[in-house]
Amino acid sequence: SGEVIGLLGPNGAGKTTSFYMIVGLIAADAGSITLNGEELRHSPIHQRAQAGIGYLPQEASIFRKMTVEQNIRAILEIRLRDKQQIETRLNKLLADLNIERLRHSPAPALSGGERRRVEIARVLAMQPRFILLDEPFAGVDPIAVIDIQKIIEFLKQRGIGVLITDHNVRETLRICDRAYIISDGTVLATGKPEELVNNEQVRAVYLGENFDY
What we know:
This protein is of the alpha/beta class. The protein has helices at residues 15-23, 45-51, 68-79, 83-96, 112-124, 142-157, 169-173, 193-197, 200-207; strands at residues 4-8, 34-35, 38-39, 53-56, 130-134, 161-165, 178-183, 186-191. The protein is globular and about 55 Å long. The two termini are 26 Å apart.
């Protein structure tokens, strides 16, 4: 926990499929999925969430007919029963993600970056130990990319492990402690970002010879 790990590779390498297997959206044919020593390969999605796995999909996941506050509250009410605890957690999440001013905004009125913040707040409402971020930079402007990088650093400081995949390779590597490069469903290389950038095989298969980090 408290580490940012990248899962990168060419299109069709198996990145999103790996995420789906971890959260339980598709079944793994073989191998194991463990979290702190607990085998989760055959566990349903809700048990994996209870074990501490949070997931932010690439597609928009907020409820469009709700406000920002209602979106977050809906998730908190799954975890908590005490109304005061719900209000306290709601206010803290709004403050932590810097979206207090958007509390009463309807979901369709949000920008791409604002929507991502609300989605991350919803994931945090489940109190995960690890969060999988699938293309968190997709559909957001350059300023929002920097914003999301800061949020990922915030998650790391809170001791939450982050597994991230994104086509924005340069910006993703800048926030990773380590990364895995996969190709055709197998691990091509692993290491710190600077090690991977200087790996000739990684450059040949994925980054390209002129990639500048």
